[in-house]
Amino acid sequence: MKYLHNIGTYFLMIGEMFHKPTKWSVLKKLILKDIDDLIINSLGIVAFISFFVGGVVTIQTALNIDNPLIPQSLIGFATRQSILLEFAPTFVSIVMAGKVGSFITSSIGTMRVTEQIDALEVMGINAVNYLVFPKFIALLLYPFLICIGMFLGILGGLVACMYGGFSSPEAYITGVQMDFDPFHITYAFIKTCVFGFLLATIPSYHGFYMKGGALEVGKASTTSFVWTSVFIILLNYLLTQMLLS
Amino acid sequence: MIEVKDLRKSFGDTEILKGITTTFEKGKTSLIIGQSGAGKTVFLKCLLGIFDYEGGSIAYDGNVLSNLDEDEKRNIRAQIGMVFQGSALFDSMTIAENVMFPLRMFTKQSKSEMQDRVDFVLNRVNLENAHNKMPSEASGGMQKRVAIARAIVNKPKYLFCDEPNSGLDPKTAIVIDNLIQEITDEYQITTVINSHDMNSVMEIGEKIVFLKDGLKAWEGSHENIFRTDNEVVTDFVYSSNLFKKVRKMYLEENS
């Protein structure tokens, strides 16, 4: 029963997010601030993880190919497929659920605890629109972040190939270009957009409707990370089933 | 003027407000007092429209809240200034930005007009040089004064204060009390204060509503409270020896 209530409240919050919009002059600044907090400040961690995981995927693939009849270009092909289809959209989103999700929940939760949300509501401001909508708009730029993650993951694989001596750069690049299906990019970005929506709304929900004090803010951040990850994994499965099978 | 008739509010099976009827008049400072758990905060949040209520009515200058749609309620709320117990300043904004916030949200004034108004209200609460400080850099008393400045910057018709003196030293508490009363008088605002502070009751309570167990147990002015023989009120207000002595002296002087 509690889960049904939470799901209902979540969808009501999403409806409220688009109702009675905040003044554009105010909203503009909030969106720019959220783009800085959620997207620009995540560039470093996404770049770092993507580059090294790309390298690791290449090494793992190379070490598991010991049959001389299998062409070395397969290393590049396998790395590309892993990065484009799963690593960049899904794995990075789970990392982002920890980084961005916790930030969103704790910042909104702190506003709830310190009565700042009550202050907005008493003033007659739609607090959901004021707080959540700019995050939703900011995370529309999330595919841009994933795009960088894809590029750096494949680049990390190339560097690992060159310096680890697993295959020639030419063979790796040939593999990256082999049997390319543009729909895989569409699939990856559909997933990215859905995950971006979850990243904006689930942590906001946990922050906005939390009750209690500072300790509960910490608990809400943890809960929001767990539920965001669960829904990312669940929707990843459903979308893959629907779009690729 | 705010008229409250037979206000009832429950949480689950627990009835918190059991039918409160009272009036808060324009240009007067009204205080809601009572023990912890008496229903003061719930009463205030019902007045503010944060909590829905099950029975009775609340009317702001004749506009009954329960008859208004969400947009009309928001318009009423835009005329309300609120000072929260913990000040509730937006910690990502400077003091000047906090005070300017209601103007940015609800008016079409130019930046210079808004800046002039912010300067005026910050001067009014004696915070001339605090514009660029962050709320975390301000003391408790300063934060309360910023909260008052933010509450009055948009010339509200109604001002609500939830425990405005909590956590303040007695001297600062008196400054805050006097400031609220002066502002109420100056701008003819309907002011409602939720308080535990007996100094406030004695100093600025032009109307006092005493709540006990979700019911209005007594109402009157700070002068009446010295003379009342209502045991519920005297047990609460004169629970300290100091206030017993103050009352005795008052009655001797005015007998």
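qc> Residues 29-240 of chain A form one domain.
qc> done
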